[in-house]
Automatic annotation (TrEMBL):
TPR repeats lie at residues 605-638, 726-759, 766-799, 927-960, 1007-1040. GO terms for molecular function: ADP binding. Residues 4-97 form the Bacterial Death-like domain. It comes from the Bacteria. Keywords: TPR repeat. Residues 143-282 form the NB-ARC domain. This is Tetratricopeptide repeat protein.
Amino acid sequence: MSGGLPKELNHRCRQVFLQCDEFKHYDALIAVFVTDELLPFKSEIRNANNRKQLVDFCLEDLLQKRIKSGKPVLEIFLATLKDKYEVGNALHDELAALYRDVHLAFTKIEVLSKQIQLSYQQFPDVLSFNLPGEELFAGRKQLIHEFLSLSKKTRIVAIIGIPGVGKTSLMKQVASQLELNHVFWYEFHPELASLNHILITLAQFIEKQIDNGDNLTFTFKSSELLDEQRIAIIIKNLNHHRYYLFFDSVHLIEKNSNIESFFSILKQKLTQSIIFISSRAKPCFCKPIDEAKKIIKVFHLDGLRDVDEIQDFFVRRSIQISSELARKIDKRFGGLPLALELIAVLFKEDFTEEHLLALAEDQVIEQLFDEIYERLTPNERKFLTIASMFYLPFSEENVVSAYRSIFFQDDGKIHLTKLKRQLLINVSVSNDYKVHESIRTLILRYTDEPSNLQIQLADFLVAQMQEEYHLLLEAILLYYRAKAFNKASTVVVDAIDAGLIPYHPNLAETFLSQFEEDMVSPDKWIWLLGSKGMLANFWRRYDEAEDFYQRMLHLAGELQDKVASALAFQILGAVYVQRNDEIAKKNYLNSLALKKELNDVKGQAEIYNNLGEIYTRQQQLPEAEFLLKQGLKLLEKINAPNWQKICLYANLAHLYAEQGNWQKAVNFTQTARQIAEEMRMIYKVGMLTYDLGVHEFKQGKYEIASKYYSESLEIAQTYKLWELEELVHVGLGKLHHKLGNYNKAIKHFQKVAEIEEEIDDKSKLTSTYFDIGTFYYEINDYQNAFGYYEKGIYLFEHLMDDKQIQVFLNNIYVFASKLETPQSILRPLKLLKKRLLVNAPSYALAKVYGTLGEIYLQLLNRNRVAIACMRQEIALLSQLDRKPEEINALINLGATYENLELYANVLDISEEAIKRAEAHNLNTLTAISYYNRGNCLTKMKMWEDAENDYQRALVLVENVKDTVQREAILHNFGEMYRRWGKLENSVKLLQLSLESVRQRNDVDSEITNLNNLGLAYRSLSQTQEALDCFNTALNLTHQYYRKCDESRICISLGNLYLLNNQPEQAKYYYHNTLVAARQIEDTDWEEGSILSLAAACKELGKFDDIADDFQAVAERAYNLGHHENCIKFLTFAGKINLEEKKPDSSADMFDKALSIALVLVYERIRQCGEQANISFLSQKLTEVLDSIGDSIEESVENNSVEYAVIMYQSLLEKLHSEHYWEESNYWIFDCLKPMGDWLNNWSLD
């Protein structure tokens, strides 16, 4: 690429331009192209010596420029140029064709750029700048000459001076006279100094200079190279040629030891390139000894003191002054360029020499600016003030839009034009502007309450971030300066959530280090703690990360933030895996209990530690059976001999073995072996004998299996069949392993390794090393186990069989899950990933990414890294066109998002999975995707959409005859109808599901179906049918010792009896629920049973019997951050207090419940975006309001209107006193008003 344009198009442009008369010379070119969009050309175009040079300069200039809409100026130039020639002219046609091709090329580049941005979520490059020309520069000729004549011994040139002395302008003028493609320009900005960004920006610069630098930036961003290694690579490349590195405003990196150290290393190790820096004071890395050795040259910059230079300065601005006046200006203002700029502005107004000389000498800059400021209109002052608030370069659109938004004025462009002309706003880069730091300081003197304006501007920029994401940086700086730390923290946390840390960890550290606990509110600090933990985890400072997460967990309990608590528990589990498995398990269980309350079903699988194993056993066996039978049909069609069917028979036997149809498996194998014996096919006989041993082994018939293995081994050794011998040793090793004879198992597998080493079969050897490692691991010999695992990973890329790859990596995950420090397995896996990247894409690389994702997610709780790995796996599978695996990976990612309760992401991923599965007619996967999305939509109460998805899923699974999946869909579909209130439909579907699970003798599913069917009958007021379902389910829980299910069924029975005004019976079953919940230590069910028991006791007038237990469990729920149950405890306590004529206490309970419910509303909005309906988002808040209304109504019925009135008034007072209701959520008072009106009517009556 050249300037973003493919080389062949770049070459065509040059060839066509050389034929055009417009390129005879500079004057001819300028005479034709005088539009604002095409002018001004760079100044060096004037210096072109011939047509070819003029073409080169012009094309380079055009490729760098874009107009406001983003359209490349080259396109406009070509369109304009072709119109200079008549239709039919060869050049017109050639230019028209060239225009079309250039347009297509830029369009493609733009699309690709957007894709890259979306894929990597890279933080925008806002810290480095292109090099604008300095058309108005005057003087300093001798100094510039000295700069250009420095010896190669000098490595750093330091230009030191006060603000406004012209340091930056001088450096730009020097740079403009050098070989531009060897010039690197970097400008530091307040609080944004980052060594990481400097190195990446230098890498991008080097990529353009060297032929083999295409991947340097990617390597710097994605690899784990240390800073020392990256610096060494940079220096090595900088020493190949003479490059000129300009660093502006170096005084802003004071106290940044990393960057100062970087400059010290450059000073010592650069041999070809030279560095120019500007600074207000001499940097600490500029040592006297370096100056003595002439390694560093320091120039202290003064103003323009020569009269001719001062006159030239004004001439370049179309102002003529006498030499006498120039001397006076020199004497009074010291030739300070900033002062001269202000004088030039004033001279263009009505300012006279007398006015100038009358200014006081000690405050000349301030007085000059005051004179200019007084001549500005009020709106111009407002516009300049807004522009001065920006710390980073800003675009015209940014400043004009901000001015319009804050001051409601539409004349911004007019003001910008005038202020540019007066040089109060300067051009920074193409289409970008900045206000000189000194001018900005002066303007702030005129600004009342600048912090308010800074906040207004920051708020505006945050609102624009969807379109211009780089404005995030500016907004954060503005909030910091205005001390609006709560707002700043929100933006910082959002940036880190969006993926800032992997790309700019130093920048993230800079932002986060600005915050201390007393600077922000607790609800902001809790997420800052999480972000600080993420950063510590990124740097692998695990103890520090654990401390942050522990503090986050404690604060989450105090704030009753259930989501934060669940996240903290989850991450702490991963941290403790490194040290104490029991504590890790306890943390995981606490997190899972919270997620149960949030409708997260992940917990059961994690307790028994079998989700991964279950997932690996999900094979597409119906498709395999179809293919194998189709093969047999083809052979039968051509009357092929039986011996040609041996392999198909054997493979069908394997298929039936996977299905557990052992009779068919053995029959097909024996048939095949008989054919092989008849044909004297010794090898096949030995192999099929081995297969018979495998079938018997899988059925647990170890003695018979051993007999077949021995017979097969004898054949192998007799006929030197090393491959068969290898397989038999594998079988015998597995058999002894099964019997607990680990040493014998290891010896058999070591024999396998010897065979594979002898024949140099690295693919098989990889799996064998892993198996030996597993055996050592199971006898707690972790040192030998890890050694063999490392051997296997080292040879991993030689695995050829996809199933072996999957099994190997699945077992790596299991091994990691058992280690005290599972991250120790990451190093060999990451090295493997790097090796596989050389030949990407590959299935092996995709599965390595998948395994890394599982380890990060399940064991290390690094969710964002895990998701990044999962997405990389999906991308690779897509490139390999492995659609079933790709869609399965998408489904897995969707499940991950659902476990994280990121429902909007679930819907997006499900939609993508559905599209891809439907496009390739993968009906089973399409059904699963619809089913998963239906489950998510059900949680979000989007009933119609969920109904559509379940219906589509059901049709698809019935077509493919997937019984288990059909049952799951029927059950969840029926449960969705029950929650929606379509009870007849619910009963019908749940009955169908129940019939099916009973046919399969699936006890767990039968209990679940019976319970939900009973709930549907209860809602239909069919009490007896509901009782029959519940009692049948309860009997099954007793018969099969399902204590967890027993709790659930007892709750359902209790609710039924309570609904039918039988509180004593209800109390009995609620008590049984409590007993069962405590036996299995299930805090969720314990809390639910206490709440239900309280309701029954309240009906019986015996609440005091369980008051102490109720309070203890309620307090624990609060401490654990079980928000939804906390709301229930609080609203129930509110009702009890009101009944006991304690209206103030009642109001306090309802007030706390409303506050927690509001938190849950905002959390659901975060999880679901704008896709969920309002009833789902506000569900908990609505429940609290209903409870308040019910309590008031009960008080009225009990002739306690006066207490209800007191409670209501007390609640209103409490809400009015809390700022988050009074300021941001005033609608709550509208919701409560009808209750007050109703109470007033009763009071009047």
